[in-house]
Amino acid sequence: MNTWFKSDERPAVALLIAIVVLSGGILHNTAYSFSKANTIAWCACYVIAFTLLLRQYSLKWIPWFTNHGILMALIAGFASLSIFWSTDQFTTIFRTVIFAGGCILATYFSLNLKMDTILKTISIGLLCIMALNVALIFSNPVIGIQDYAGEDLVWRGWFNNKNVLAAPFALAALISIFKIKPVGSPIDWIYAILLAFSLLGLIKADSATCIVAFAVGTTVYATLRILNRNSFSASIVLIIVGIFIACIGLLIAIITGALSDISNVTSVLGRSGDLTGRVDLWINTWAIITEKPILGYGYGAIWAPLNDESVALQLSLLGIHWQEENGVATAHNGLLQLASELGLPLTVFVFLTFFLVMYKKTVGALSRKNDDLYIQVAFFAFLLIHNIAETSLFRGRDIYWILTMLFILQFPSELFRKNFSSIGRKTKKTISRPSSLTSRSLSGAGSTVKSKSSPSTHRRRSKTRRKKVKRSSVETL
């Protein structure tokens, strides 16, 4: 680590690795867990990041974050306000704090780490998670392997289902595709091992959502490089938006009943006509959204219930438990979940803003030929497709969302980093004499006051005068 990371980066690197490992369920078998050990560990990370931000930048990072992270600041603000109309105020308060903690982490990392260092660090953390999961799967198949739909045996590792395991595998595969180079340095070997592990895990976990999202992200990355090489425009964003809108149109058709049979579509992915129960969940989620379409039910108030009362509340609203005994963890769709929590108007605005950010980064990538921006746009495309059937947006403890915030706050220009990474840094105060008190100004005013000089200064002046006298005498001779 000493040769890979600079000394001033190491605290942020260590904290980011801890975040990746925690989001990978090292303390609990689900990323949505709010167990005591998990919560204490995450809160400790929030406090460390907040303390380091105050030490480095005092409070000046807050207006910086509000300026450049308007999307996250907007969601955090509405989440805080939703406490007043939430159906479960305690849960909303708890998860709003967690969301704010995620924003603090993203701000700290973005102000202290460059993009290459961020991806390198996340890769190391993901490699640790995957190696431990693969070891568990082979050493204890009873825990690590899941019987899926009574037909196939799939990997789930220490997670509660295969889709949660597939998420870090998909992210690791995507980062490896982005960064691997045929050079043979130690970090390139790490990316190669990471790619092998992640592709194996994706195939064995058999998560259609993650596989399709990974394929889309990889395709967008390759397309951006080709477009840049041939000087095309940023039309790739229109293609991505078109794919996303088509998926949303399909979702709306399913919810409204306009398309009752989607078996022809799902059979291509090897899934059932109801997408393993998601269709019923989406229909019921849309039904509760229409009851409170403007403000929603409060941030985090419905999903991943914290206790028996929350489970009963969710059941009374949704009418189903889907496939999980302790309530439904997510709406399995990023838009539906945000709309159910904070209303339809905010959801539309947030995704329009998301597309705008994506478009600007694509234009920047094609104009500057910057590989970091290629990676960000490809990741955003991956994230949008992933959130069609899963939920990884706007969740304070999800590595996908933390990385999304990092990408939004990051800008590859050295000028940007030079200007904003020094926000609030304490500089040494230099004390200078006012011009009205200098000997020159006093003498100009006709004053007879002479400036005092130190003994060393007097000696230097005497020595200089002696040299001049000696030189003049030599010239005379």
Question: How would you describe the overall organization of this protein?
Answer:
The chain is mainly α. Among the domains are: 1-112 and 396-424, no CATH class; 229-393, no CATH class. It has helices at residues 10-23, 36-57, 61-68, 70-81, 89-112, 115-139, 141-144, 162-179, 186-205, 208-229, 236-256, 263-266, 278-291, 308-318, 334-342, 344-368, 371-389, 399-409, 414-420, 439-444, 455-476; strands at residues 145-148, 152-155. A two-stranded antiparallel ribbon has the order 1-2. Helix 4 (70-81) packs antiparallel against helix 5 (89-112) and helix 10 runs parallel beside helix 16. The protein is globular.
Taken in chain order, the helices and strands follow as HHHHHHHEEHHHHHHHHHHHHHH
Q: What share of residues is helical? A: 55-70%
Q: Which range does the strand content fall in?
A: under 5%
- Average pLDDT rating: 76
Biggest pleated sheet? 2 strands, antiparallel
Global structural class: mainly alpha
Number of strands: 2
Low-confidence stretches: 412-416, 423-453, 469-477
Q: What is the spatial order of strands in the main beta sheet?
A: 1-2
Please give the radius of gyration in angstroms. 29 Å
> What is the terminal-to-terminal distance?
70 Å
Task: Please work out how many helical segments DSSP would assign.
Answer: 21
Shape, per Cα inertia axes: globular
